[in-house]
Write a structure and sequence with these properties.
Number of domains: 1
CATH architecture: 3-Layer(aba) Sandwich
CATH topology: NADH Oxidase
Number of helices: 10
CATH class: Alpha Beta
Strand order of the largest sheet: 1-2-4-3
Largest sheet: 4 strands, antiparallel
Structural class: alpha+beta
Distance between the termini: 32 Å
Order of helices and strands: HHEHHEHHHHEHEH
Number of strands: 4
Helix content: 40-55%
CATH superfamily: NADH Oxidase
Strand content: 5-15%
Radius of gyration: 20 Å
Bound molecules: flavin mononucleotide
Amino acid sequence: MKDLIDNHDVQTQIIDAFNFRHATKVFDPDRKIPNSEFNTILDAARLSPTSFGTEPFQLLIVQSPEKRALFRDFTWGANGASNGTAGQLGTASHYVIVLSHTGATMKAGSEYLAKHNREVKQLPEDVVEMIHGAYSKFQDSDFHLETDAHITQWAARQAYIVLGNMMTAGALMGIDSCPIEGFGLDKTEAVLRTEFGIDTRVYKPAVMVAFGYRADGPMFPKTRREMSDIVTWA
Ligand SMILES: Cc1cc2nc3c(=O)[nH]c(=O)nc-3n(C[C@H](O)[C@H](O)[C@H](O)COP(=O)(O)O)c2cc1C
């Protein structure tokens, strides 16, 4: 009986968190997320599942106002309800750029994959070899990841799992967030190269996400399709 009660509480907390989360346009600039809570969000990212466990993402956390300003002109999706400093870029407690790996690290046979399997997954050499074969088959004939662009998109899909888990972890702690795809890819890559020393042949910006505490209520009520329009049971 106790298990049932606890389980019911957890279900309520989960649904409450999903209802609480909305794409926050403007954060309270005076409220900062405590380190321990932000570290929990980072743990949610680190513990996220990824295809073959390859972890093809990096997190760049941009905190200084000067550095954030470098993105402002072409990151229209983080300029909030108005333009300028009032949007997510200007007001978020924490601003994260989620980078995804490219073919440079994720193509079957890459040095990164072998090192990852040896050092992170601690697999013996024969298993590393075997998995290499599995990657090749998966990339070449199962999922048709034939070009570098396909591989980058595949890695970006893993990065979006990370994005979702970070936002849900935040929502469970009462922390607001906004995912951001509203940015110019070419200009973002140029800033990452010149101002952050990131090799954009190896890492591409997949998505951004701002965290903090809402300044106002949601701009729009939460609307969703009916469950029956989404789910088919077979
Ligand atoms: C991948 C992704 C990219 C998004 N990009 C932006 C963005 O650039 N700026 C923004 O204000 N909202 C952005 N959103 C938020 C969506 O517009 C929002 O999630 C959707 O309208 C549903 O509203 P809700 O999240 O408040 O429930 C993005 C959402 C996702 C998942």
